[in-house]
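User: Okay, second chain of the day. Same drill as before: sequence in, structure tokens out.
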Amino acid sequence: MTTDNKRASGILLHPTSLPGRFGIGQLGDECFKFIDFLHSSGQTLWQILPFHPTGFTNCPYSTISAFSGNPYLISYDILINEGYLSEDDIPKYNDINPEKVDFGKVYETVYQTLKKAFNNFKNKCSKADSKEFEDFCKEADYWLDDYTLFAALKNNFDGKPWFLWDNDIKFREKKAVQNNRKVLSDEIDFQKFLQFKFFQQWKAVKKYANDRGIKIISDIPLYIAHDSADVWSHPEFFQMDETLNPITKAGVPPDYFSATGQLWGNPLYDWEKLKNSDFEWWIERIKLNIASSDILRFDHFRGFSAYWSVPWQEETAINGRWEKAYGSELFEKVRKLFGNITMIAEDLGLITDDVIKLRDDYGFLGMKILQFAFDSNDKNDFLPHNYNKNSIVYTGALDNDTINGWYDNANENDKNYFCEYSVSDGKNPSWDMIRSAWASVSQYAVTTMQDILSLDSNARMNTPGTVFGNWEWRYKNGDLNEKHINMLKKITDLYQRK
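Assistant: Same drill. Structure tokens below.
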């Protein structure tokens, strides 16, 4: 779907990992400074993780909405500059570890702080700001009304999942919906304000990046959490029974790594009904990502061709079966509506001919993970000499260890193979692997900020199979310097990724 053949490179960094004084990265000055770093070092790609609100595990791939932005990222500094907050309104974060997001502390303080900004906005916003807010609400009407009612109801029911709410609102009976919109109108307006400010700030970030030649890569998870605004407001697009209980759930079948497979637990789509609706939900979701980014990455891409369907009552993924999805029909619609856009397929794992055909028919870039390459097998598909141009190479993805952590834990044969292949002395494996990625024929090359900083396993973003302690890493002010700019710019110029 893309006609852009330019070689490019960049960094994977979620905004939560930005430095700053508020316990979590935000879309303020530090975000713009990071973009300046990308520009100074010759980078033209910035990849983020999904920016939606997260659940109790803080995982950006498990969200209560496929459309809304995470209020945690709203910049207090910008709200101060706009006159909607004062310094006295900001909680004190003196005991915060600058190298970790303190999600608990942020959760305890963020909404009461933003509520002050909302009250000030109501009382003293200009006519222009009020008009911009109204316009945003109209433009986002496909998802905003349902999401903000869902968020208000969730607070009203003390955080309970929607399927444990009172039956009248669980089933979205017309009278119950109307009554709750009236009773909860103040909270609904607050939730709309949060979304307005998030997307207003993100729009400014994207423009700043684009003006400096930097494209943003968004990340679109395939599945949605059961307890989400999307499943509650559009149960017809999911495999649900008449009592709104899921019939099936997502996972992957048994393989070399797991004798029982993986059971993810997300409700599965009803692809027939999605198709009959002309894929309206997916089209609106993709449209939002096109407006918010420049390149779209689709997580678990193989699920657009066929998906592993497990009966809801099963406790493992063993007794599932493959079912057909309508990814080809969806992406044909996307092509007709949006033309040539650059898209990336997360085509890792069990990839069959039908998945490859879907990827190639619609011009998706495939993914290569360089850390997977060095198992002393010269036929390994992840070795750069086996790549094709229509791909994006990552030194490591969000579930991988850092490069230095990987090297420290690798066996001697794999270390030796890596060193021989990469012409490395093993003293700085991070930059040796980054150089190999940049030198490859892949159209795009991306590394992580942790690997730019040559950090060990303590800095990894996520460890699969664990629930807590993930998604917390941050870098600190002063970690980046001219040395990193010059090193990155040198290999970017050398391998013509600009």
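The mean pLDDT is 95.

User: Thanks, on to the next one.
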